[in-house]
Design goal:
Layout: H1 5-28, E1 37-43, H2 46-57, E2 77-78, E3 82-84, E4 91-100, E5 105-118, E6 124-131, E7 135-139, E8 144-150, E9 160-172, E10 175-185, H3 192-226, E11 234-235, E12 241-242, H4 246-253, H5 264-283
Antiparallel strand pairs: 1-10, 2-9, 3-9, 4-8, 4-10, 5-6, 5-7, 5-9, 11-12
Length: about 300
């Protein structure tokens, strides 16, 4: 097949998009970045994890006096302080909860994460957000589970001190034994295969479509060239089929060259030939046949009473 330049470009773009799409699963196996930079990673203390496990099991009641908190247990974990501000926004908290499913069925764990923002030396406020997505469908009894979810990103105005916060809201069918929290800043960049695929995939689809249209048109053109030419069947009187001469049709459509224009020499030769013919014709002596000579007619006699 004779490939045109457009078809070659379309094939290259399609192959590049296919390679980028194939590379996405390999990139998805890499740890996901939730920001431009990971500032800190914390593993909550064992006594805090044991308390959350007891709350999830319903074996302990919360008698904390922190009544101004929006957490269900009203006794959240508060991490170390961070210096937050412009140039490092936004900030994202990533929560990872590990445990074992008690019985066969669905597992669900709901948490709240946020920030304690220090407005002054003796005043602070809480910025709290729900962390959803910590669930697993149809877990087996005794199955080890690791659930990860992130909070919505938060941006702070100006330079200030902030501290991450975490607290349990409720948990079902999960014995919690590990809780980790990561602090990320900035916007997460896209991995290069994903970014390349997002750019090349539309071009590849468009090139594939153009390539397909071109291939269909080229196939039709080749089929039309290879098909035998069928000339119309001519019929004579009485329905007799007249054989068509293929050479006659070919001769009919042939373009003949126009006759050459007469030259000066050609005109002179024509005039000389005419002059010679006239001269020879005039030189021939004319002989009259005496036997065929007839006497001159006599005039009719006029009657006497003619006027």
């Amino acid at each position: 097949m004779d490939w045109s330049r457009g078809s070659r470009i379309g094939a290259l773009l399609g192959a590049a998009a296919l390679c980028a799409v194939v590379a996405i699963p390999a990139a998805s196996r890499e740890p996901r970045a939730h920001g431009r930079e990971r500032l800190a990673q914390y593993r909550l203390p064992a006594e805090t994890i044991a308390r959350y496990a007891a709350l999830a099991a319903g074996s302990v009641s919360d008698d904390s006096t922190r009544l101004n908190s929006m957490f269900a247990d009203r006794s959240p974990w508060v991490g170390p302080e961070h210096r937050a501000g412009v140039g490092r926004n936004p900030y994202t908290l990533v929560l990872t909860v590990g445990g074992v499913a008690r019985v066969t069925g669905d597992v669900h764990s709901q948490w709240q994460a946020g920030w304690e923002v220090y407005e002054s030396a003796d005043a602070s406020r809480e910025v709290l957000m729900a962390v959803s997505g910590l669930a697993r469908k149809r877990a087996a009894a005794g199955q080890r589970l690791t659930l990860t979810a992130s909070s919505p990103p938060v941006s702070f105005r100006g330079e200030r001190k902030v501290a991450p916060m975490l607290g349990l809201v409720q948990s079902r069918n999960l014995d919690i034994d590990d809780v980790r929290l990561e602090v990320w800043s900035g916007t997460a960049p896209l991995p290069w295969p994903v970014e390349a695929a997002s750019l090349l995939a539309p071009l590849g689809v468009a090139a594939a479509g153009m390539w397909g249209v071109w291939g269909m048109a080229n196939r039709r053109r080749l089929a039309a060239r290879s098909a035998p030419e069928i000339s119309p069947v001519a019929k004579g009187p009485g329905g007799t089929v007249i054989a068509d001469d293929p050479g006659a049709h070919r001769r009919a459509v042939e373009v003949t060259d126009p006759p050459p224009a007469p030259t000066r020499d050609h005109e002179l030769r024509v005039f000389e030939s005419l002059h010679q013919v006239l001269r020879v014709g005039l030189a021939v002596e004319t002989v009259l046949d005496a036997a065929r000579e007839r006497k001159p007619r006599k005039g009719k006699k006029r009657s006497a009473d003619a006027p």
